[in-house]
Amino acid sequence: MADYDVAIIGAGAAGLSVAAFAAQLGLKVALIERARMGGDCLNHGCVPSKALLAAARRAQQARDAARFGIRLPPPEIDWAAVRAHVRGAIARLAPNDSEARFRALGAEVIRASAHFVAPDTIEAGGRRHTFRRAVVAAGSAPAVPGIPGLAEVPYLTNETLFDLEDPPGHLIIVGGGAVGLEMAQAHVRLGCLVTVIEAAPGIAGREDPELVEGLRQALKAEGVALREGAALRRVEPDEAGGLAAVLEDGSRIAGTHLLLAAGRVPRLAGLDLPAAGIEATRHGIVTDLSLRSVSNRRVWAAGDIADPRGLGPRGFTHVCAQHAAIIARAMLFRLPAKLDYAALPRVTYTDPELAQVGLTEAEAREAGHTALRILRWPLSENDRAVAEGRPEGLVKLVATPKGRLLGASVLGPRAGDMAGMFGLMIGRKLPLSALAGLVLPYPTLAEAAKRAAGEFFVPRLLSPAAKRLAGLLMRLP
Fold first, then answer.
1. 86 and which of 51, 218, 337, 462 could share a cystine (Cβ 3.0–4.6 Å)?
2. Helix 178-189 to helix 209-221 angle, to the nearest 10 degrees?
């Protein structure tokens, strides 16, 4: 008889969600975690980064207050107090992910490293534990690129950035994706010099270039130095005691701190997956669309470490919750469940935020949608954005000629708050008429989404035939 019904490796967002489901069903659950409960999201990622961004936003609001007739002195940054705010946010949320909570739910929490020793056995804490089902949710780690000279200089990742006792004088960030851009803006608003080095032709390479341009200008206006299309030749110690990044064009950028934000890699090392017959690639554990291992039917994978065939890995906390729901249906209840990312949102939490749900225009065309309707509504035509002095931004919708939404891109304040509306439309295959006809409170930024959807119907409503019909109908008694 197996020791556990479900053994879960990793107490991050994905593992905790699965453990909560299984334990509350009365199953015998082992939750194995070698580091901090809550994983990357609580301790090194979503929570501390958003707390830091919140502090930075307050500083920028103080600088911008004069535009609204409010005169304030330049903000003084108390770095110790900023750090206390970040730690306080983590501490306030930590009980939700704690050992005590999951033990109270009925799970056994094992604080140890874990690895497979057989297709149905995990070794952890000096003991072997057999299982009926297992879920690998070990997450991912910051990628450390093979930059010449990196061994000669200290560097930061998101796992060490929030431990700095003093603010960076000049933070050099390698990587212009979401993490790099968020931390660039946060630190420049908190009084640091910041340079972002991106090897690709442009920052935020996955996103719609039309909206990225607006974000680029916003970051530059606040003082973030962007070096795009810049190949990094090497890093080296600097005479002033810091470090320097040397680019292929020969330019040299001296700084005090180096942050690596060049992606993430799954935490496969140490799991000994071959001992359990679990197939994996460098992208993660290979699964089908129910997140079940293709080579060991006892095992599922969830979160960043899962590599579903045909979809690939996705490194977002909300994907972890989606994975847990799929596994609950497929593993716990034996119901048909398949992963679908058609309505998956992603947000870069800069200011303005850049949100994407579904396909960008380029992705839609690559997917074979040759006939598209592209619908736009600028925030300069949104009353709330104008009233708040934030008219820069855009809602861009990608739809089929018949009015089915394929994707939505939004650049603007709190753009991520619109993502749920678009996700519901795409996920439920609602027509654009549903959004165009929605009654929204006035004035809100979401009205820009409604107006963009309404643009789909304008050519028909204002066509010559429609005008003739309206004229004829007006003659009726």
1. 51
2. 20
